[in-house]
UniProtKB/TrEMBL annotation:
This is Deoxyribose-phosphate aldolase. One of its GO terms (biological process) is 2-deoxyribose 1-phosphate catabolic process. It is an enzyme of class 4 (lyase). Pathway: Carbohydrate degradation; 2-deoxy-D-ribose 1-phosphate degradation; D-glyceraldehyde 3-phosphate and acetaldehyde from 2-deoxy-alpha-D-ribose 1-phosphate: step 2/2. Catalyzes a reversible aldol reaction between acetaldehyde and D-glyceraldehyde 3-phosphate to generate 2-deoxy-D-ribose 5-phosphate. Signal peptide: none annotated. Keywords: Cytoplasm, Lyase, Schiff base. Its EC number is 4.1.2.4. It holds the Pfam family DeoC. It is found in: Cytoplasm. GO terms for molecular function: deoxyribose-phosphate aldolase activity. Gene3D superfamilies: Aldolase class I. It catalyses: 2-deoxy-D-ribose 5-phosphate = D-glyceraldehyde 3-phosphate + acetaldehyde.
Length: 223
């Protein structure tokens, strides 16, 4: 298994420096990671640094809490695409979800999908599975699976609980085949990364990508 091609090499801390982005992109090229995921102000820089590589540039929308207005999320998406983002990881409005306002969530995704797909970009929808009930996760699978998204993503990494193999398995069971899963939040070891892939994840968002790949030296993994 080429684990490197599952990894979105990530840095999203609010104190991120230009030198952090330079190191992130250098490592991404060295290990041939699937993508880097960077704060919106660094999309242009990352895109330039990754030119000529197979590594995509991803950024976050409505991050990390998801309660930005729909119009604000669309504005963020448009700017990210202008800056060169290939992939967009958007947090849903968790306040709407927890208040059982599924109509708001449907309206949100229905306004956003045409904007993204007009430019043929990849969209990953973050549901923050660690703070949801199983029933809420299943409802998300139904709603976003029908919306035509590319990936359903477990977590931002900022909630009290990140990715879990159980959540990934539940999502895989209830999503259409064409919707992939990205696991993120607390992925720091090769063993956990492998568990998530075995559960059905096709992308892994982690800041420990290099450490995980170095752990493959003592396994039968190939990269």
């Amino acid at each position: 298994m080429q684990l490197n091609r599952y990894i979105d090499h990530t840095i999203l801390k609010p104190t991120t420096l230009v030198t952090d982005i330079e190191q992130l992109c250098s490592e991404a090229k060295q290990y041939d990671f699937a993508a880097v995921c960077v704060p919106p102000p660094f999309v242009q820089k990352a895109k330039q640094l990754l030119e000529g590589s197979d590594t995509k540039t991803a950024t976050v929308i409505g991050f990390p809490f998801g309660y930005s207005a729909i119009e604000a999320k669309i504005a963020e998406i448009l700017l990210a695409m202008v800056d060169g983002a290939d992939e967009l990881d958007m947090v849903i409005n968790l306040i709407a979800l927890k208040n059982n306002d599924w109509q708001y969530l449907a309206n949100e995704i229905n306004h956003i999908m045409p904007v993204v797909k007009q430019k043929n970009k990849i969209i990953k929808i973050i549901i923050e599975s660690g703070v949801l009930t199983n029933d809420e996760i299943i409802k998300c699978c139904d709603l976003y699976g029908a919306a035509g998204i590319d990936y359903l993503k477990t977590s931002t990494g900022y909630a009290e609980k990140g990715a879990s193999a159980d959540a990934v398995q539940l999502m895989r069971k209830h999503l259409p085949d064409h919707v992939k899963i990205k696991a993120s939040g607390g992925i720091r070891t090769y063993d956990f990364a492998r568990q998530l892939v075995d559960a059905g994840a096709e992308r892994l968002g982690c800041s420990a990508g290099v450490a995980i790949m170095q752990q493959t030296v003592n396994t039968d993994a190939v990269y």
